[in-house]
Records
---
Amino acid sequence: MEDVISQIKEKFKSQLFGAQNLKELEVVEQIYFSRKSGKITELMQGLKDVPDEQKKAKGQLINELKDEMLQQFEMKRSDLKKKEYKETVEAERIDVTQPNLPAHKSGHLHPITIVQNQLEDLFTSMGFQIEDGPELESEYYNFTALNIPESHPARDMQDTFYIKNHPGWVMRTHTSSMQVRTMQDNKPPMKVIMPGRCYRNEATDARHEHTFFQLEGFVIDEKISLANMKGILELVAKNLYGPDTRVRLRPKFYPFVEPGVNGEVACFLCKSKGCRVCKHTGWLEIFGAGMIHPNVLEAGAIDSKKYQGFAFGFGLDRLVMLKYGVEDIRHFQGGDIRFLTQF
Ligand code: PHE
């Protein structure tokens, strides 16, 4: 019996020592302390074959063994618990003393978006709604509905990207393509702006780009006059270039307005004295505008006898170039990070 006990003791010790974690310890617990089939239980059951006079002493031996083993077991258990806790804490630990890693640079808005947002804020503050529309456009909305007949030079292949194998479709050459679309979807009175990307088949240079941005707008109601138009456009110019900005309107032909004007602001770079940017005229062209042609109102299902309106279109790229002193329009689409990070 004593032999068996010391054998169990040794085996138990080595298994206990070998347990690397609480899971492995559980296995050891099963082997020795399971009530049903553990080694201690086995020993206890073996007592029934022991002669009566020895039973008490042997029983005592087994109990002492059991107490000793349990004590060792609990010590090991608390050691492993501490170890596992330390490991989890270690894994979740954040080293606050670690030097700063190079931060990810977050992106920022493109200069055209900055100015577009500024104008959207201004127009919505005056009660305008904002409409978005397709860049791939039918010839109808881009030209025909805008009183531009089929033979008009603006439709020439030189100016426009036509879509191969899809006759009648073009990349819109201006945001005016949204005029009739918006009229058809709404009822007067209307105050709308329609900013967006446009395309022209340009031979590109410092002032011309095949992809550019415009901000279109119109107001339609009863009793709308050229004076209303001037008032609004002056306000926009002052918002962009300061309260002393002067605006000049000069007649210009656009098939979809009558009368049509070309809007200029006094050159704020040279105070109208004449410089390279204003081509020594003292004025900078920033928009086209005019009273909406009755044919266009009718195409938009609006009674041209009852309603009038004015429309305008700003070249956003030009506004941005003037605001930030950008000398070449091609920077905007160029994607050069050295240019973009300046804004
Ligand atoms: N769509 C014209 C252009 O691209 C600008 C314009 C808009 C003119 C609205 C008059 C009225 O040049």
---
Amino acid sequence: MIKKWWHDKVAYQIYPKSFYDSNGDGIGDIPGIISKLDYLKELGVDILWLSPCYRSPLADQGYDISDYYSIDPRFGTMADMERLIAEAKKRDMYILMDLVVNHCSDEHEWFRKACEDPDGKYGHYFYLRDKKEGELPTNWRSYFGGPVWDDLPGTDKQYLHVFHKKQPDLNWENPELREEVYKNINWWLDKGLGGFRIDAIINIKKALPLRSYPADRDDGLCSMQAMLKEAAGIGTFLSELRDRTFKRYDAFTVGEVFNEKPGELPDFIGDNGYFSSMFDFNETIFGHSEKGWYDASPITPEDYKNCCFASQEKAGNIGFLSNIIENHDEPRGVSRYIPESDRCDKSKKLLAALNFMLRGLPFIYQGQELGMENLPISSIDEVDDISARDEYRVALDAGLSEEAALKALSHEVFWPCITFKSRDNARTPVQWDDSPQAGFTTGTPWIAVNPNYREINAKAETADPDSVFHYYKKLIALRKAYPVIVYGRYEPLLEDNEELFVYTRTLEKEKLLVVCSFCDHETHFAIPAEFAGAACLISNRNRTYTDTELTLEPYEAFVLYHQVK
Ligand code: GLC
Ligand code: CA
């Protein structure tokens, strides 16, 4: 593996709308991010990925861009963005923007021109088909529900949107469109960006000619997976994209790739891969059901461990996956993977340690470093997320009562307050302190603050050396101090043990032993002879590990290090 500048870095995802509001309008903004750079620097993170803050009608919270060359006024100005890049640079930090080019917004000028003249230049920027009464061009189901086709306003045509109807798909088969995309990427890289997180990228390649597949639900539609399985040749687009843009700048890129085909990993993240890295979603997609979210199975600690280990095996020495516990599309990891009755600082630290010590690039999602939790709700009316609202409807259509649908879409139930599997969970404002609205805004926040902000907040945690925040800070510092954490070969131990999550990392003479007791009762663990007397780098239980026969507390986690003589 060729060494790269980002290998030893730690990344942090900012969801601008909910990070910090500088002007009291209830919406987080870029000046707000700038004012918190010192906090992020103290935590130790290097790469900041900003979810979209381009001009957008916010139909899908900014993942629907109406102008790739401007900042939405709700988030600030271009001057603010330039200042953010410069201020980050002063602190040796890098800014990544979100690259959303599978689709744009239906309010983008290209789409408006396509409506005016569907047979002209801009008509070819999209997938348009003649409208036929009572028949759709294909029967694909959009990720957000319903058919992927809608009428192209003012014409006798329909357009394709694999996400929301306000997110028309861009036609990557058209070289003119691709040129527009490259021009925009290079324009941003010239401003000094460190790179991009690349949205929904697998969808840019459609199986041609577009056709229908067997229906998989009563709605007569089929999952997008049917078409994607058949789509071949994305590599041609992705290598061109890399060569024309990222590669020229040595930019860091991380792809949102859900389903590369077996054997394709080296093409994606190998030495000359399309991307520097891609997210490991193995745990987040576990238990998924084709029927909908309501039918998904919950994940156990053992499943969790198997998912992590499988990804580690898969990536091997090919390249670095990016490891996440949560992001803006997922519930909070501590609420999803740790049972309600056991959720405490110790178990949150366990989840942090076992992820951070894996091979790959750690990505922290805003508030994760504070142990932020899911948002309790009592009715669907409190949910903003378009995706969760659609999945609720899918559950009702499948015959569930309203109460049953709410429960089925919740990972654990503490009726009447439930934490519903909604993208809102991670989108509630960052909890800065215990003042009203968690110090996020002086106005009314666009989405409710989690009521637990009086206990869980940055002010309290930065002041408490035993907090989840300080634990993350220490994990980050360790990654920078020990190359074995970055480059060490991974090897699982006790693979069949349902309670203990144990692995080693080895880099020449350096060795690391990671031991996590992922269960709610005491367990026995014998330290392997070669680690007898090894130094403890971190523990969530401030104890020493001088004995080799240990009784571990529930959720105890520690890391030992030694150098072979
Ligand atoms: C990605 C984003 C998600 C968005 C979708 C469409 O999955 O993470 O938030 O809704 O793409 O752009
Ligand atoms: Ca604001």
---
Amino acid sequence: MSDGKLRGKRAIVTGSNSGIGLGVAEAFAAAGIEVVLNSFTDRDEDHALAKDLSDRHGVPVRYIAADMSKADDCRALVEKAGGCDILVNNAGIQHVARIEEFPAGKWDAIIAINMSSAFHTTAAALPGMYDAGWGRVINVASAHGLTASPYKSAYVAAKHGVVGLTKVTALEAAGRGITANAICPGYVLTPLVESQIPDQMKTHDMDRETVIREVMLQRQPSKEFATVEQIGGTAIFLCSDAAAQITGTTISVDGGWTAL
Ligand code: NAD
């Protein structure tokens, strides 16, 4: 899928020590792209992830700790990386509660990590992309960037905001070799989602397959999870020449959720 021209480009993937971010990092490293992994922790195992990725794919991979809830950390991540050709804003958290019971601190954290971080990293990364005359900004939004569910006010607001930011980024960067798009996954089988299955099985007194189909994937018509490999492949496509005129838009990887 990669056209070989991606070899040697540098990508920053925020929130990439697990789940979708790590899947995108894996796809990038396999395509010969230098990768900067990130999360807010600074543990040996975070740096070991980078070494493993580097060893397996023969590309430079670094881990840079930075807290995406803090504007200065977001901008420092891009600076410490030495800029980037590809920026994937993926870091995200979730909290579920009715609006009238939603803790204000959780609202602020979700807006900061899931939305404002993308503004700060994009602002820091764009000047280098303008100089290079090439760049890709990929925001990992969600089906919840296009549609809503109850009890997810902050998440839905942040993801809709990310889709709006994606459009503005695309317009400002248009005609300069830079595209900005949002990937909107439905339910993706990440360790986080996997860990919820046993509890759901107990709560609903259902077997694994039934709980996945009837409860977790109730809104996903395919009744199958998307995979981190599929999100990685979508990111690679958005980086390819074939996608050079795709900008300011969303790509749903949601098994038909938003077609309903
Ligand atoms: P995950 O919990 O495995 O990954 C989230 C990543 O963000 C982790 O690496 C975590 O360390 C990092 N992170 C959290 N707070 C951070 C902070 N303050 N600073 C830096 N990094 C931080 O979950 P995931 O499912 O892989 O989610 C990744 C992205 O995909 C999120 O933006 C999420 O909203 C989005 N998404 C996930 C799904 C799904 O079903 N899994 C669906 C749609 C969208």
---
Amino acid sequence: MTFYDSFAIVDWSGGNDSGPRPKRDAIWLGLVRAGVEETPRYLRNRLEAEAALTELIEVELSAGRRLMLGFDFPFGYPSGFAEALTGQACPFAIWEWLETRISDSPKANNRFDVAGEVNRMFGGTGPFWGNARPKHDVAGLPRTKAEYHNPFPDRRAVEARAKGSFTCWQLAGAGAVGSQVLMGLPVLERLRRRFPGKVAVWPFEPMVAPVGLVEIWPGLIDPAVKRAEAGGGIRDAHQVRLLARALHRLPMDDMRAMLNIDAPEEGWIMGQGFEDKLTHAAEGLRPPPLRDDCFALPAGVDWTPVDEALDMLRARLHPVVRQTTLPLTDALGRVLAEDVTAIRANPPETNTAVDGYGFAHAALAEGDQVLPLVEGRAAAGAPFVGTVPKGMAVRVLTGAALPEGVDTVILQEDVTLGDDAIAFRSGIKPGANTRQAGEDVHSGDVILSKGRVLTAADLALAAAVGLNNLPVRARLKVAVISTGDELRDPGQAVETGQIFDANRPMLGGLVQQFGYDLVDMGRVPDDRDTLRGTLDQAVEKADVILTSGGASSGDEDHVSALLNEAGAMAEWRIAVKPGRPLALGLWKGTPVFGLPGNPVAAMVCTLIFARPAMGVLAGTKWQEPQGFTLPSAFEKRKKPGRREYLRARVRDEQVEVFKSEGSGRISGLSWAEGLVELPDGEAHITPGTLVRYIPFSSFG
Ligand code: AMP
Ligand code: MG
């Protein structure tokens, strides 16, 4: 998706050696190498970091991969400084200037002395300020902002837009970015020199070299970092990991737009203005791509039985949409990404199921009862405070937690109420009319399992047991494309030989009924280049592509030809009627279902094959449609060797089929309310024979 193969992010540090134990405010390196996320590396000091980065660049170059390498400190200073310091208005002049003067070791460095040297060139009160060494004053370097005067702008243009960023002049105290820059630019300068012609620095140079150095800032994805941090771990490690991931996942167009910045002297924070896109890209688990051979058929297979074809789809596909978290109220129809457990019991406390009177059963005497009432009552949300003494009763209302001392409730209709007592007949059972705490769900029970499509009732259950947010999958995006020279859009003028595109409204409707996002890619003529272009666009927008028409191997069957050309096509000749060969393949890693052009076959193939396959891609469990065995109202003889689906509906508890099996008869699809499935073997069905009927609603 992007024009770099690997992304490394460095959280730099201006301080001294941080010791062997991973901590924050040391140097951290996050890496996504050729699409694979690595665990963030802790680098205790700059010496170690420089060696690690040199090695990383060597490895990526020798593997032929392009590497984007980001650092969280400014690559340039506010405008005017470069020229004043070096005589050249060029950021690299500062890099070289610093590289010759800064000395660094894990224990000590001369950054305050060099800053003092700079300040003395400009009158001795600025641009740098701050000194972290208590006993060591540096001539010309103010310790605080009180004595400070800066002859240059305080901030670069980009910093005015990045809320919460620090200036590059501050050398000590919280947010001492200034020290990071002084100690970082010499390292970058040496990396540039070590790999001549192989390193480009953004935005000062065109990003054509195989290694691109960019300035980034973890503050851009702060919401994602905060959410990750809530689960524990070191903030700096989350920052580099999530930023590397976000850059890796960012669509190419966004990456291009992000890099398109003109800031030849001061530099720029890459991603400024793209905070939401980067944060979005940083979050959620994203599954690995499908395997190239996911649609390969065993050698020599001629006609594949339906069940074998379904088994192959089931075994070889896996979810392709990322995981995210949604509030309950937005989660209807979403696929649950993980098992969820109750964090509270239902009911949370033992309570009364009716309006009545509560008491301790063990204290009842033989025979009819008269129990004095305590003062007060227990209502839902307004519990009784205190204990009900043995031998007394308390007024309780439906849903109220049982007060201390109460285990049984008698219905108000079953008592006679006196001034301050109740009377009732003997025979009530202990615990009557109560709901025990946890009798429905215990805290910690799995209430809903991974892969479930969330219903309204599921939301009630989740809410009742204390859940507010649910882990769900992003909605599967399904592109629909019609192919054929003969097609016109509904409403367009038609000439002889032309027909209206019926498949696109049908497939679009099915996609929406399944709960997926429809990406309507329109229709394309029987022209290979046009279709190639449309497939290219579709993979940018969707997770899976449904085409109709052009799927067999005739002259004008460009879908199968293109999938073949891409090298990942399988012509699935499934023993099914209706349905000509179904073409399955990957276009740039995105699965394509090449459905037959015939509307009846297109719909049957979608329901029987594409729907369960898309379910897996969307993260659901494998969905077998629920069929019903019912007597037939028709007569039919079929040959062995293939499964058949007829358009059908149920009337008077019998299955009737459409008057014609013609596969161009769209009216029969509309007439039908389901399919009748006839087995692979030979069959002779007469009225009354039991057949399997699958209502359309069973297909999700
Ligand atoms: P094909 O698979 O492209 O050879 O098409 C098979 C049959 O289905 C031909 O009669 C096509 O005209 C028809 N067909 C293809 N696509 C559509 C469509 N989108 N709507 C209606 N009929 C179609
Ligand atoms: Mg065609």
